[in-house]
Structures are given as structure tokens and as C-alpha cells.
Amino acid sequence: MAEGLLARRRIALVLATTTGGTGRHVRAVVDAALTAGAGVTVAGPATTDVAFGFTSGGARFVPVEIGVRPRPFRDLATSQSLRSATVGCDLVHAHGLRAAFLVAVRRRSDVPLVTTWHNAVLSGGRLQLVAGGLERLVARRADVTLCVSGDLETRVRSLGGRDVRLAPVGSVPLRRTGRSAADVRAELALEPGRPLVLSIGRLHRQKGFDTLVAAAALARHQPRPHFVVAGDGPDREQLSRLIRELAAPVHLVGWRDDGGDLLSAADLVAMPSRWEGSPLAAHETLLAGRPLVATAVGGLPQLLAGGAARLVAPDDPAALAAAIDALLGEPQALAALARAGEERGREWPDGPTAARAVVDVYAELLGPAR
User: Fold this and answer.
1) DSSP letter string over 196-259?
2) How confident is the model over 324-334, as pLDDT tens digits?
3) Is the pLDDT of residue 99 over 80?
4) Which end of the chain is more exposed for a tag (fewer CB within 10 A), N or C?
5) CA distance to 10, 32, 358, per residue, from 19 (Å)
């Protein structure tokens, strides 16, 4: 991507509430678009500017609160606010289904619309029917749809998407604070020689941490592994209750900003998700050279191809526990898995690379800089 590629172009990025990978990817795209010479507007909840620093990064930020669930009257007003926020822009790029729907229902036909699908809809019942209608509208109204995983790409095509492209996202190695692995283990009150199994993610049903807790209760390796989950979210109380009920050796440590240090101290990383696209946590684990056991869902098999991780079925605590026990009991296999994962992590596009690819899509749609 050449500097000046988007000179004098005005790009609008729209996102809903996020505390993780979507926001980090949008910030990377902001940086890449600014480097390419564009003027950038970001519209989304005020909390996203606090979390990801769009304003401090050089973008114009317009606070627009986007609710998690559909609310017809509120959504009508929100859609109008987004239309107003993007007036004068040459291209609009909406991230996630909610943001994309609210842009698409009042999109201007003369302004290209790009959408990125970051997540699958996992709801059931009436909510699934409503979401299906939103998905169909978004798929058909976007000029270009970018999908972070192959299953999402297939889904959008089945819904009538016109120009659908695979666009996985990635991260960069997490920074370390200088603490040693021994220091981190001591802070976690781990006995010498006791294996540490780490998970990082939002405490939400999608992440499958209830499966992890059940697997922790079943694990039989000696010394018995200690499980640490770094993250917060709506399922914290439910998971805490399950940990007590099963007497599982799991410690919920809340949101942490020292993921690099935690990874350095981990003997094994577990990702028990029910669905993932291109999760940054998995890429960061690979880049840190830590062995990973994960579920074979969504985009994970593609990201973790070539033996980069031990894959198990989702919602299967016994299979997860067996994989953890087997790996902890085979130091050579554990080390080989870490090496294969690190090699795969270097092959996968990192955050800046993925963002530059998005900017190339903008340039393709808008044509030569004026």
C-alpha cells in the first residue's frame, strides 16, 4: 500500500460496542487509511474511542450509541445519526452485523458500502429468525463484504452477497513488561512444577468457558494443572458458580493488560470456543510460541492449519481434558506443538498487514486519487 493512495478521500468507519478484536482491527484500519492519505471519520459508541484511541490516533470521532439488540424505534434514530455522521464521506465501512445493518438500511446509493463480518450469529428461536433477516439485508446491500473466516464467507454468499471476500485479521506479538515467568507464576500463587493452563477471552457463552471449567474438573494429570482465565464479561457469575459446584481448579483473574506476561508463564493455552472467526488471542498465542489446544470451529482450523494446535470438538469437556492431559504428559509433543504454532503464526497476516489489505479494497472501489 503506497502512501497517498487515498489522498483527499474521506473514509467513514462504523462499529458497535466492542472491547476486543473488532475494535483493535478498526484502529489498525484507521492507521492504515491515514497513512494512505485519507481523512477518517469513526462513528460508534463513546466507549470505543476511550478503549481504542481513534481520536488520539488522528481520526474524527462521532459518538453514536449502537445497542446490542434490535430496537425498532431506537434503531431508526441511530440509523439517521449514522447517516448524518458519514455525510461527505466517499466510502463507508461498517464492522459487525449490527453496525452494518444500521448503515445499510439508510445507505446512500452513490457511496460504496463495505462491510466486515466478524462474528457468526449463535442465537436460537425468534432471535435467530430476526438475525437471519438482518443478515440477508446486509449481505445484499454491501458493495463488498469482507469475512474473517471461510464459514462466514460461505454464509454471506448463500444470502446473496455480491462481492464476498475472505479477509482474515491478525495481531502482533503482545508486549512484555519485563517480569519473568517465575514472577507471574508466583503472583498467581502457583506451586513450583504445577502446570498452568491459560485461557484469554470475554466471559461469554460463545467462548465456551463452561466447557473449560468442566474439563478442568476432569483433568487427571499430576501435578494437577491450574487453570487461569483472563477476561471479563456477562457470564462471570455463572462461571464462578460452576467452578464452586465442580470444585474445579480454575481462577478467574478478570481483565488483564499483561497478556504477554501471562502467555510467557503458561505451559499450555486452551481456547474452548463454540465459534471463532480469526481470533487475535489465538494468533497472539502462536506468535508467543506457546502450545495451544483449541476447538475445531469457525475459522480456527484454517488459522491453526499444519498442526499449529491440537484441535478438539466443541462442547466436549472429556475430549478437552484428555487433550490437556495428553499434552502435559508429553513434553516433547508440547514443545513440537509450540514450534509448529510459532511458525504458523509468522505465516498468518498480522494486524497492520490485514489493515493495509482493507485500504487496498477502498482504493479499488474509489479509483485513482483525485
Assistant:
1) EEEEES-SSGGG-HHHHHHHHHH---SSPPEEEEE---TTHHHHHHHHHHHT--EEEEE--S-H
2) 999 999 999 99
3) yes
4) C
5) 26, 20, 21
